[in-house]
């Protein structure tokens, strides 16, 4: 059984070919900012990213018509529980219209849907960005017009949390973890007995990240929006694509900023240390959500490759619980296994 896996992220498209549960090829196509800036709308990246996906299938020595299924990262959808979902018309319509917001992951189901039509094969998403397992108390923001919305790196956080729990000789459903995904966006989530009961919205709140502004001073933000200096579109770009490290340093490459800091650039050091400070504060806050009953703090994502970042976070938070590091991500595997569970009849797919 041949499964094509597609994971569009903000700075990359990751592609894998799976034969049942076995990975046969994994490829990461990096997209630098200049390359993506050629497309004015996210939807315009469709042909370009799909071209890379088709090329990877050929590189793996497979023909498109040999594929039995396609699975992709799910994007900003209506709030849904965790699990595998069949891609359907309603889902693709919501994503094409960006009804719940714009994010690169929206392209996953759109590309998979087009391959489903072309090849007449089933198409799925697994644990999309919109997974919502919030406790009711987590939904209030402080302003009745604005509800807090769960949008996070649910796919990787859940896959890594299962792996860490297993390594601790326990089930994911029997542990309390604080999982931090440090990527282009940052998610910090308390996972209580297998449910992600809160998370900073990675597009909207929490620590600043590579390109996200995170939580901002609300009153001053309103004043900036109405200052006449920026259009709505410019403000959205500022907080989602040009905030965080990029806003201060003009690059989205955190390892470059780290090198600058190490070679004596005071500004670079301050910026990277401020991000670390905010991540650690968020972990502390999430420890209170779990009332201090934390079995482990898990740090994952691209930035978990950095010894500098990990070491400094660890110093601030290891009084709470042991810190486990899982660099990179397990998203491709989690997608393939989620699709295979359905294809092999072990699980029923959810309907959107
Ligand atoms: N060795 C490293 N040291 C520091 N930062 C790193 C390292 N490797 C990757 N990163 C950073 O991780 C981020 C990308 O993480 P990733 O999880 O791949 O992101 P995405 O959310 O785009 O999928 C980028 O900001 C990149 O600079
Ligand atoms: C919107 C939550 C998911 C997210 O931020 O993903 P990336 O880090 O891949 O942009």
TrEMBL record:
Statement: the UniProt record of this protein carries the keyword Cytoplasm: yes
Subcellular location: Cytoplasm
GO annotation, biological process: acetate metabolic process
Domain of life: Bacteria
InterPro entries recorded: Aliphatic_acid_kin_short-chain (IPR000890), Aliphatic_acid_kinase_CS (IPR023865), ATPase_NBD (IPR043129), Butyrate_kin (IPR011245)
Catalytic activity: butanoate + ATP = butanoyl phosphate + ADP
Transferase found in the keyword field: yes
Enzyme class, broadest EC rank: transferase
EC number annotated for this UniProt entry: 2.7.2.7
GO molecular function (one): ATP binding
Alphabetized UniProt keyword annotations: ATP-binding, Cytoplasm, Kinase, Nucleotide-binding, Transferase
One cellular-component annotation, GO: cytoplasm
Listed PANTHER family: ACETATE KINASE (PTHR21060), BUTYRATE KINASE 2-RELATED (PTHR21060:SF3)
Similarity comment: family membership: Belongs to the acetokinase family.
NCBIfam families per record: butyr_kinase, PRK03011.1-5
Protein name in the entry: Probable butyrate kinase
